[in-house]
Structures are given as structure tokens and as C-alpha cells.
Design brief:
Helix content: 25-40%
CATH superfamily of one domain: P-loop containing nucleotide triphosphate hydrolases
Strand order of the largest sheet: 6-7-8-3-9-10-12-11
Protein name: Oligopeptide ABC transporter, ATP-binding protein
Radius of gyration: 21 Å
Structural class: alpha/beta
Shape: globular
Keywords: ATP-binding, Nucleotide-binding, Transport
Largest sheet: 8 strands, mixed
GO molecular function: ATP binding; ATP hydrolysis activity
Strand content: 15-25%
Organism: Thermotoga neapolitana (strain ATCC 49049 / DSM 4359 / NBRC 107923 / NS-E)
Number of strands: 12
CATH class of one domain: Alpha Beta
Pfam family, one: oligo_HPY
CATH architecture of one domain: 3-Layer(aba) Sandwich
CATH topology of one domain: Rossmann fold
Number of helices: 12
């Protein structure tokens, strides 16, 4: 009997409201709308959806870059409000890998200097030799060596090397959680799977938990344990990646699913999903925000926001499944 993994992160009824427009004509946009999910130890959990769905805003709130309008985030049993009092300790445990590897390093500093600075900031070593051994150790985890970055600047490395170096720098403090926001979207297609495989290796070898944020369901299927599909601030479907992407329940998940080839974990995916741009009115829509596009829309969908409904071991937010 397999052992149930402990929960490392809980997101509880998280909401983020932005005010847009002039001081006369202001409109409130609910970018993240009362979402809840949990993350287990040594698990890759994906937040997926098109641009503007709220997945990056969710990540920014977890990292403390955005203040939630309401709700709570609990990391290792402690509320994010308490973690603010010990911000440095929190950032040692929770590290981020962002989308653009070319913006991840100061172009005026050599990459090894940036690594040494990170070691000093977190007091991870007492001598330069000890710091160098630590840096080399983390670089080897991602397929690089200290010699590959020593004295070199970001302009001298490829996008794939830079993204690996960014992951290595994030690993310096031995974090228990990595938040990877579109980490392969700006890497050449031929290198994407090597980066995605790296997250799986970190999960399996180091026990690191990963929140993987992407619009690309193909790589999500390949690497994730569980997945949440977001649309206009809502989580509309959530469950095991196998179940959600091979037998989707929500009409929006089906739309995304139809945008990619048949899932095949042996195949090296290269395709990206292209979906219509964010529609402003969908954020303001009463009821289900997907009602304007849904092929199975009912009158209730335009009036009432669907509740969370369990279908088997997965959650779907859709009136089609109301008893």
C-alpha cells in the first residue's frame, strides 16, 4: 500500500481583484476567483490555461509579490502572513524559475559572480572554496559544471544553458518548493524536453515539489502528477493529469485537449497551443465565465456560477454535473 504524501502547500479560497481604468470609470477585474488547491511533498502540480487565466497571478501571490485580496496560503503549516515576518527564510525554502532565461541574470555581471552573491545573501557557505563546491554541486544536478559559467556572461550562453543555470541557482538554498512559470516557453523546441525532464529528476532525486505553470498541455501531460485547469480566474477542473487530459469533463478542458495531439509520454512534444486572446468581457461575466464560448451552454450557466463538483476523484466546476 503506497504511503500518502504530506501536504507542503495549501491555497485556500484565494482571490485577487485588480482595479482598472481611470478614477472616474473604474472596473474591478477578479483575476483569481476563490480558488483552492494543495501541493504534496515531491509532487509536480500544474496550473494550466491560456494567457490571462490567472495562473501567474496565483504564483505571484504564493511568492509574496502580490497581496491576496482574500483567502490564505499556508506553506509548511504556516500562513503566508506569518512568513512575511521571516521573508528571507521563506525565500530559502521557496524559489522561482521564470519564463525568460535571458532576463534572469544581470548582463553586466559574470554568472559565477551572481552565484557567489546568492551564496553570500543566504549565508550558505563560510569560505569561497566551500561556496564553489556548493555551486558546482548544484550545476552538476542540471547538467552543467562550474567551468561552464566561470568568468562568462549571460550573452555567452545559450537559452537552454541559461535556463539550467537559473534552476541551479534556485537550488543553491535547497528549497522544498520550486515555482516554475512557463520555464520552457522561450527555449528552443529541441531543448524543451530536457528542461521538463529536469524538473521530474529534481522531484524524484531530491524530493522537491514543483508548481509548473504553463499553457502547453503537452509538456504538462509529460511531467505532471496532478493538474488544475484555469479559466478567467477560476479552476474549472482539477485532478490527476492522466484523468483530466485523457478524459476531460469540463467543456473548456475539452477545447484545450483538442488543441494538442494524442498524449504519448514517449513522444518529444514540440507543439504549442494557440488560443484566442483574453476577452475583457469574460472577466465581468455573471455565472460561468466560459458560457460565451461553451458548446453545451445552458440558461443556468449565464446566471449562476457553477459549484465545485466531484466526479470520481477529480473536481469539475460545471453545471453539466449537478445532480
Amino acid at each position: 500500500m503506497s504511503q500518502v504524501k504530506a501536504t507542503i502547500l495549501e491555497v485556500k479560497n484565494l482571490t485577487k481583484v485588480f482595479t482598472v481604468g481611470s478614477w472616474i470609470f473604474r472596473t474591478k477585474i477578479v483575476a483569481v476567483d476563490d480558488i483552492s488547491f494543495s501541493l504534496r511533498n515531491a509532487e509536480i502540480f500544474t496550473l494550466a490555461g491560456e494567457s490571462g487565466c490567472g495562473k501567474t497571478t496565483t504564483a505571484r501571490m504564493i511568492l509574496g509579490f502580490e497581496e491576496p485580496t482574500s483567502g490564505d496560503i499556508v506553506f509548511e503549516g504556516v500562513s503566508i502572513h506569518e512568513w512575511k515576518k521571516k521573508r528571507k527564510e521563506f525565500m530559502k525554502k521557496v524559489q522561482a524559475v521564470f519564463q525568460n532565461p535571458f532576463e534572469g541574470f544581470n548582463p553586466l555581471l559574470s554568472i559565477d559572480d551572481i552565484f557567489f552573491e546568492t551564496v553570500r545573501n543566504y549565508a550558505l557557505a563560510s569560505t569561497n572554496d566551500e561556496a564553489r563546491r556548493l555551486i558546482d554541486e548544484k550545476l552538476k544536478l542540471v547538467g552543467l559544471r562550474f567551468e561552464d559559467i566561470n568568468g562568462r556572461y549571460s550573452s555567452e550562453l545559450s537559452g537552454g544553458q541559461l535556463q539550467r543555470a537559473l534552476i541551479a541557482r534556485a537550488l543553491l538554498s535547497n528549497p522544498s518548493l520550486l515555482i516554475a512559470d512557463e520555464p520552457v516557453s522561450m527555449v528552443d523546441a529541441s531543448l524543451r524536453m530536457s528542461i521538463v525532464n529536469l524538473f521530474a529528476q529534481l522531484r524524484d532525486q531530491l524530493g522537491v515539489s514543483v508548481i509548473y505553470i504553463t499553457h502547453d498541455l503537452a509538456t504538462a501531460y509529460y511531467v505532471s502528477d496532478r493538474i488544475a485547469i484555469m479559466f478567467r480566474g477560476d479552476i474549472v477542473e482539477m485532478g490527476s493529469v492522466e484523468r483530466v487530459l485523457t478524459d476531460p469533463k469540463h467543456p473548456y478542458t475539452r477545447l484545450l485537449r483538442e488543441s494538442i495531439p494524442e498524449p504519448d509520454p514517449e513522444k518529444k512534444w514540440k507543439e504549442e497551443i494557440t488560443i484566442a486572446d483574453t476577452e475583457y468581457e469574460e472577466y465581468l461575466r455573471k455565472g460561468c465565465k466560459f458560457a460565451g464560448r461553451c458548446p453545451e451552454v445552458m440558461s443556468i450557466c449565464r446566471e449562476e456560477k457553477p459549484p465545485e463538483i466531484m466526479v470520481g476523484d477529480s473536481m469539475v466546476r460545471c453545471h453539466l454535473y449537478k445532480k
